[in-house]
Protein: Electron transfer flavoprotein subunit alpha
Organism: Lotus japonicus
Amino acid sequence: MASRTILEAMKNKRSFLFPSSPRFSIFSTRLGSTLVVAEHDGGAIRAPSLSALTATTCLPDSGSSVSLLLAGSGPSLHQAASHAASCHPSISQVLVADSDTFKSPLAEPWAKLVHMVQQRGGYSHIIAASSSFGKNVMPRAAALLDVSPVTDVTGISDSHTFVRPIYAGNALCTVRYTGAGPCILTIRATSFPAPQKSVDSKSNEASISQVDLSTFDEDLGKSRYISQTTQEDERPDLGNARIVVSGGRALKNAENFKLIENLAEKLGAAVGATRAAVDAGFVPNELQVGQTGKIVAPELYMAFGVSGAIQHIAGMRDSKVIVAVNNDADAPIFQVADYGLVGDLFEVIPELLEKLPEKK
């Protein structure tokens, strides 16, 4: 009987379950309930977390019961909770963990918080964006819950079948989660774009509840928060910008990279860079685009002096329009570019700066 089941599953190219093995059994805790672990900044929910909320709408029967978890301290947390309560129609409840413990994004206390909330709520799915925060917290939370996370999801077929990229995005793998509950996911924000306009309607406002932290064990001995630095400029955030202008190693030095920054300023665009440019010290690593950097999908991506290494293409291949300028006609970047120009970027960029109108 077992061999027949295996043969039928192989014939249908579908995964199969061993009904007698609890390891592979599908869980049934609170069918359709989802917890979204969200980031907030300046009193508002960050765009990647809004994309995670969009992903919940792809789960069957999940839209009716979605809880959003926020943590931190101070007025900005409560402003973010008020914003969350009306920012997305799928949210039914906002859970707020107010404590100085969560003032900084340390993974250990956040993972314990997710574990505690899951133990109380019994959610079927826990979702976060595949950002630096999500990549840091969710694997630890999965370890505490003794489940295997499904990471960097780009598509959701049903409640347990997901699509994720492999081989630096050159292939897509369809996986079926057959472990114990909950199903933990990190999603690629560019694959689940958030609505352009928030709901922001008092009639659709979700309830806000405080998380009881009386039994929470802080245990912060494994790591401690030192400081956080950010670049203060008027350019859009790289992960959410409509236009991104990137430069590669061909710019030769940090002084020349200012050409990219000047062009980005004139276009109202964000600045990106390849790993080679970052490693050479031209720009800080938060501007790196690629498999080990940020994943972007702007409406326009302009690449100057970018050869098109597979690791870089993995971070920008979902851009709507890709424009490449390179003096090597055989550069791999031209294989993915919608528009390509073989030329010297030190001639092309100054000409663009001269002919483009000033940003209004």
Q: What stands out?
A: The first helix runs from residue 2 to 11. The chain has two domains: 33-210, 243-355.
